[in-house]
Amino acid sequence: MTHQKPAGLPDKIQLFIDGEFVDAQDGATFDVIEPVSNEVYITAASAGKADVDLAVAAAKRAFDEGPWPKMLPRERSRILHRVADIVESRDEQLALLESWDSGLPITQAKGQARRAAENFRFFADLIVAEHDNVTKVPGRQINYVNRKPKGVAGLITPWNVPFMQESWKLAPAIATGNTVVLKPASYTPLSAALWPEIFREAGVPDGVFNLILGSGGVAGDALVKHPDVPLISFTGDSSTGAMISTNAAPLLKGLSLELGGKSPSIVFADADLEEALDATVFSVFSLNGERCTAGSRVLVERSIYDDFVARYAERAKNIVIGLPSDPATEVGALVHPSHFEKVMSYVELGKGEGRLVAGGGRPEGFPEGNYVAPTVFADVRPDARIFQEEIFGPVVAITPFDTDEEALELANDTKYGLAAYVWTSNLKRAHNFANGIESGMVWLNSNNVRDLRTPFGGVKASGLGREGGYRSVDFYTTAQSIQITLNEAHSPRFGAGGK
Ligand code: NAD
Fold first, then answer.
1. Cα gap 122→129, rounded to integer Å
2. Alpha helical stretches, state H, 334-436
3. Which among 52, 292, 415 is the best mutation to test ligand 1's pocket, defined by most ligand atoms within 8 Å of the CB?
4. What domains sit in the chain, N to C, each tagged with a CATH number?
5. pLDDT at 498 over 90
6. Which one of 268, 327, 413, 498 has the fewest beta carbons within 10 angstroms of its own beta carbon?
7. pLDDT tens digits for range 360-375
8. Nearest CA to ligand 1 atom 14
């Protein structure tokens, strides 16, 4: 297989504001590279503050004056189902472009394209099924919840599985009647540039969806600080999330922050070890290890430790590395040379912090591009940086434990708290252990398989707030509480002189 540009690449990537593809006001652009050759293959418009102002103004106009927020849920739902149909019908092409731009293996990119369609279908269904509480004090008062969209939602997304992550925010934001300005990551703008045509074809009115591209510190920052954007949904690094939180504070914006992780997979001796092996290997090496919920620390009970480590290393060595476009590829190229450098620096660091049992650098036969061999360090102590810090690549730290208490202590011994995976056949232990873990999500005897109705998010440095199912509806709407008296008003008669 040769490394070839996919068909159907646009000439350049533009912003999309008020239904029009436009360049930046000042004509600024940035170069986009693909991760196998690291050559520039396209340029994208780089939005400045003036462009963000235009995008927000268009979204605000569409919200204040356009039909979208006032449509019946069924009408919006039909349009969202059309979005899902279009995404599904183009999953091959979408996956090709995503894989080219990000280095994700094509089969995994295709799975993510389908998940993106499913996000739209799910919220299309949810908004027509959605209902709120009415409460009543008999003979006195009725209260009902009047749910309203909030306005212009600012959506800021990272470069890992970009199209799917964008859909995760776009679908609930738009479904609930908001208008949006999306700011995708600058490493991976290609698949984001497909949304305008998809929305247009599905019948989303102009101004409802606006796309700005460019640097986080300029375009993202202007969106976060814009007074006409009352809510920001952000997914990315924990330090960026903290900065956004500070910048949004003076305007008291609604914030949802989905941040980094260093999630543990805990394997007890009584687990189904074959299943545990499959899942713990997949957890850290799928999506090139560029996965927020990766089980990047594997904690293994000492009685099975040596055998498990040996089998784990064997699997890691056998992982198929290849061109992202090759259906046989299991691990492709990392997104960008600067991310490659970061991951490689952790690989070098790990050689002094653990026992290298697989990988440890560039894979053989890949002298160029952002390729890192699946790398396994065993005997990693909890104070090691490779145990504590998010690497966000195909690198795993394995650590033994002797007791349940020690396993829990190790599991909780990081600043992060996104996901955890527990492998045991002891029912009581599984539930008690899950309860003790400081993480937003726990999978018992499962890899990361998530029903879209369930809450998604982290604790500690992994995030703030929950999205998923009704929690997304809650985030993107105001639940206005309306009280009606069924009787006299019964107000104390101030100023009536006791009469
Ligand atoms: P990042 O924080 O560098 O960037 C994320 C987005 O924020 C980009 O669009 C970027 O341009 C923008 N940005 C950067 N600085 C900004 C600023 N000052 N104001 C506004 N916007 C700004 O993260 P990344 O490197 O693109 O993504 C990887 C990180 O994302 C990892 O830490 C990963 O764990 C995390 N992540 C979390 C989840 C989750 O759901 N918890 C999911 C995927 C990725």
1. 11
2. 337-353, 385-388, 404-412, 427-436
3. 292
4. 12-258+469-482 (3.40.605.10), 264-444 (3.40.309.10)
5. no
6. 498
7. 999 999 999 999 999 9
8. 216
Identify the pLDDT of residue 1: 80
Measured from the CB, is residue 108 less than 6 Å from ligand 1? no
Whether residue 292 lies in the annotated active site: yes
The pLDDT tens digits of the residues spanning 38-90 come to 999 999 999 999 999 999 999 999 999 999 999 999 999 999 999 999 999 99
Nearest Cα neighbor of 196 from 185, 186, 182 is: 182
Of the candidates 98, 166, 290, 292, the residue annotated as catalytic is: 292
Nearest to 292 by CA among 313, 314, 337, 262: 262
For ligand 1, is residue 166 a contact (CB within 6 Å)?
no
Spacing, Cα 377 to ligand 1 middle (Å): 26
Residue 418 near ligand 1, beta carbon < 6 Å: yes
Separation of 423 CA from ligand 1 center, angstroms? Answer: 30
Per-residue burial over 279-297, b if 16 or more Cβ lie within 10 Å, else e, is bbbbbbbbbbbbbbbbbbb
pTM, rounded to two decimals: 0.98
Neighbours of 39 (CB within 10 A): 9
Structure tokens at 331: 């691990």
